[in-house]
Design goal:
4 copies of one chain form a homotetramer. Chain A is α/β, with parallel strands linked by helices. Chain A has 2 domains: 123 residues, 3-Layer(aba) Sandwich (Rossmann fold); 196 residues, 2-Layer Sandwich (Dihydrodipicolinate Reductase, domain 2), CATH 3.30.360.10. Chain A contains 12 helices and 15 strands. Chain A has a 9-stranded mixed sheet with strand order 14-13-12-11-7-10-9-8-15. A 6-stranded parallel sheet of chain A has the order 3-2-1-4-5-6, with helices on both faces. In chain A, strand 1, helix 1 and strand 2 form a beta-alpha-beta unit. Chain A is globular and about 60 Å long. The relative contact order of chain A is 0.15. Strand 14 of chain A pairs antiparallel with strand 14 of chain C, so a sheet runs across the interface.
């Protein structure tokens, strides 16, 4: 047994998500990030690689894919942490080199690209994971188990929200790179806020309820003058099996940091979870007091227990959830090395393609004047 | 100066709202409820009047209106606390007798009845108040002042919710009178949940933002089998001035008691209020820590300060808010006695008519498949 | 049946506790305040009586006791809402006139006065109630039932706190009457903060645990320069049966409003209650999720259920708790009228005497350098 | 630049704190744990080393110290994660080998041992850090800056609490190793709960207030029958400069997980922090609304900003705080390599010795019947 070797594309200086990936990949002591093409700018690429003490620094991902595939001790998998428009070409390059891929969401720029990636992944044995991190919190795992076990009864209402305020000013015109590409259709795709965070919300909702969204009726807005993509979206939802709901996402909700909140109400119990206090899950049984489930306890279901590393009361957060995704993905990398079939207990290309369709249909619904669209 | 004399129609044994009205009317020591037609059932009417130590008990509101109008020391105003279908005829009878009216919402069963009441009230000098109690909390008053003062900037998003769970089972088939009339179109009107609590939510939103809802796109449901009116509603909103929002109301949200919650996000600050912890108002200024405004403090605006009776940290609740509505209404009763013009600082027939139209348009939108309807 | 007639001594303009008593006495429609000696200042007495629409205004409590005792329709009971130094003489006067008494805490200025009141009350049949209001919240009643039922097991730790900040500046030197008498040993007694709010905390603790404090080790301070009584106290506690604990009270805790908070930990469960959010009680069973009990629910014990007037989610507060004390007291007034023995389900002279001893022993412990003192 | 090489003593299978150290040391990509003597049991030592993919496994810490000191690529520092009784001999061995040490608290078993370690560290240039992790949360750093800046004014009250429930049953008799050594005076030292968590509380209080505890008056208990060390402690505190306070710690507080909570009240503002929701700090300015400071924001002081790795709303927790201690310690390791003087921005032997004295004086105070003891 050895630590796995990872490489990264993107995530250079200034991109907070880069170190999130590194920390998450290495957290359990099962991998080291050793190579990277961290920026298209050679200077930034070199400096970023030095910051990270990388063994091998590249300035082109194509070169990196080729060199690592050829190396005796090349990387076991690649992390894609670039802006959205590069997800597709970078993923394609590493899949072609038979190097496993773990990629930021969204999967790609367009539904067509997403479909092509599905084909590529399905036609080979190379692994592909998409970092829908919010599904990896222990309390979210518990929520999913509670729904699956029937504890909530028939699901009736689902209220999901993801609000932030970081785009409430036109930062894209003030030199903020993160804002610039996220509000540029050529780099971000069809959706602004709906793509950046709305897809997380939709993915989380479907994950916990185990029910697909069947239809949506959306109203998208751009509150900041001159912004080319939506920065706010409200939608009505219908889920398979008869549940109804509301999805709200916004990046102009003044004062909100990263308020992803989920509520599900069934015929026998309700539940509520807030990402900003992620170690608590509220269970609301009919006619009884609310129960406050907390991560780390023995009374949780096994998937929630195994997703926590610490005893109760020792808060775990975003990085640990991210590391849970990596743990499942890297377990599959090792299983393939050992000749075992992968377990695929993480979001993959299909979840990614579904996210792209979600964005496309939300935009279509809104443009048509809030008309129901099937998903 | 003497205490005002009040009468009540409805509110007999078993109707929790009856004593709410009595307590609220009497709380500030400015009135006494002395007469009532508390039930159409003579036995219940008598027993209820005895419970309340009333001086004069009636079994018919027509008789009561006539007798009190004729009496030397007749009542100064009447409280209407009946099921919805009686609001119109009872109000009409007392208006005809020139007795001031304070009435439960909704104003009436139909828009047509509501329009007739508007005509009746406008053609005379008799006062009419509608008990949209939630606008009378001190923190709500503060919220309204914050919006009016421009502290929030341009209003962008409004999220309002009113969820309960008391109708999650078919209580209307199990002998529950409150449930029976609220789910019966003949007694409740066009709307179930949307009329019972959705109107409170819409009224509160318009009150705080000072902006009318211009259009709505609704999806109403009846989750309990056999129920004839909606018990759940989700809707997209557009407000005058460009704000967008979402309104959710439900009476089948398992585990929720009376979760009325309002959030408003502007270009400079956001705010958040929860009826179940009514003495706290969260203010979220851009780029600064949230502030937790609490009722009773000197830093609040005058309308919020005068709506609280106790120092900070001495919780006030629903009854005190209700008493605030009564205080404003009774102040007008006294002003008319003194020959002064009324101030009308409480919801009246126009708010009531708007509520009836809100229900009608929500139902119309939903029936048409969630099509935008103007309000 | 008629409404009871109440009189009040003290509580004139500027004294917030006066209207608290009036509202609480009248809230359930069972009494009216009709007479008062609301101030020693004749002008204030008259103006206050006019504000309250009183039928009979006095400027002397002795005169009031005599006149009301002699009147055909004299008051049924008197409310004492004066500064502490008058509690004893006023109570003595009304007891002598055979008029039932409900009195603000503390019972008197000194232990000797308290003992005298115990003798007076025990030697007659006149009722005496002390308004330790915090024991009358529904959630506190539930807490007491949970302890009594054995749900918590053996009680181990008790943490009680009562912090405020209203005396953090020397208001007594700035014309604030409430501050002036509370910091004046001649008017307030031996204790400042410890008497004003520490006694509430101790009373609540003993009420909920059903166990007397056996000993205390205290450290009292006066943080504001020149203040003659304590404005802050910390103490170690030992309760009968082996439980230990800590009591903190302060009136200089910057930012705190009226933070009375109780926690009790037993061998099988813990519980937690906060007066500022009084409708919630947290129950913490060993090895299980916390439960959030809420007032108004059918799952509560009968004493908690009957202490709430509204359905769950309709917040009740300080005034309603105060009214619960009045309800129990007035029920006894009626029982005596009907020749039935009183139930005495409210704090009386013995609780009052215990409070005076608590203050005396806390002061003694602190003066001796934090030495354990028996209570 | 290369990753630093770390070794570990203790922390083998079953000891949760072992992986906490590894994760914290490696989190920022600046170190790798490569060697260990993880258990005195050779089988466990080997298995634990294999779990961690260590390059070099030892069964004796003496052997490890010698071998690593001699190796060309030996470890740069050692982590001590053993039961308390080994802290002293292990630290002495590695200090003797000139290997930097980062050690779990408490520093040693006795004050005498602690004094010896102070001498050893002061007489050489080898670094020594003690993992008082709770001081390393971003919000705690902000709290300290607020006090230092004078924002709170003169400090008056300090309330600190650290409650858990994991020892509420006699786990030491049921095969729980963690419980067994913590309740055994030979392995844990003079204090049970007071040593295990009380020292964290005292350290945190002194850290944030920048004021030493001058005296304490304590009452220690062992609630679980047969337990040889305290499992609960309550104490009165006096701090330099005149502040007073209360410290409560317990490991039998049913339902509490890891409730470390700090409140400080000054003449101009108060503050409050809860370890279980570590990313929030409440600031309570006199006469103004509470402010809710959140980690990750630009409005925080530099020491708080640099202690967070993620944007606001992305929760960070215990592991990240632990990694902050490691970051500061490892920065000093690198500085020494570069010939720069160390910055010592982390707890060291002096803090450790102070903790040992705190335990000794708390025990002495309690044994003498809660007599004030200087610290």
């Amino acid at each position: 047994m050895r630590r796995l070797r990872a490489g990264i594309v993107g995530g250079g200086r200034g991109a907070f998500i880069g170190s999130v990936h590194r920390i998450a990949a290495e957290l359990d002591g099962q991998a080291l990030v050793v190579a990277g093409a961290m920026s298209a700018d050679p200077g930034i690429a070199r400096a970023s690689a030095a910051d990270w003490l990388l063994e091998r620094a590249y300035t082109s991902y194509e070169e990196m894919a080729a060199a690592e595939a050829a190396a005796a001790e090349g990387i076991d998998f690649v992390i894609i942490a670039t802006p959205n428009d590069l997800h597709f070409p970078v993923a394609r390059a590493f899949l072609a080199a038979d190097i496993h891929v773990i990629c930021d969401k969204p999967l790609a720029l367009t539904v067509a690209e997403g479909e092509e990636l599905v084909r590529l992944v399905e036609s080979g044995s190379t692994l592909f994971a998409l970092t829908h991190v919010y599904t990896a919190y222990p309390a979210v795992r518990e929520a999913r188990e509670l729904v699956r076990s029937g504890r909530l009864g028939e699901i009736r209402l689902c209220l999901i929200e993801y609000t932030q305020d970081w785009l409430m000013e036109p930062l894209e015109n003030r030199g903020n790179k993160q804002a610039a590409w996220r509000t540029d259709p050529a780099k971000a795709g069809l959706g602004g806020c709906i793509g950046d965070i709305g897809t997380h919300a939709a993915n989380l909702l479907e994950y916990v309820t185990d029910r697909p969204i069947e239809a949506m009726c959306a109203d998208l807005s751009s509150f900041v003058a001159g912004r080319r993509l939506d920065d706010d979206a409200h939608m009505l939802l219908r889920l398979q099996g008869g549940a109804k709901g509301t999805l709200v996402c916004s990046q102009v909700a003044c004062g909100e940091e990263n308020r992803l909140a989920l509520r599900i109400y069934g015929s026998q119990a309700g539940l509520e979870w807030h990402q900003e206090e992620p170690n608590t899950l509220l269970l609301k049984p009919a006619g009884r007091p609310w129960e406050r489930l907390r991560t780390g306890h023995g009374y949780l279901a096994p998937p929630a227990r195994s997703a926590a590393r610490l005893p109760p009361g020792h808060p775990e957060g975003y990085l640990e959830a991210f590391a849970n995704l990596y743990r499942a993905f890297m377990q599959d990398v090792r299983r393939l090395m050992d000749g075992q079939p992968p377990l695929r207990d993480y979001p993959g290309v299909h979840a990614g393609l579904r996210g792209l369709r979600f964005v496309a249909q939300a935009v279509a619904s809104s443009r048509a004047g809030s008309v129901w669209q099937a998903l």
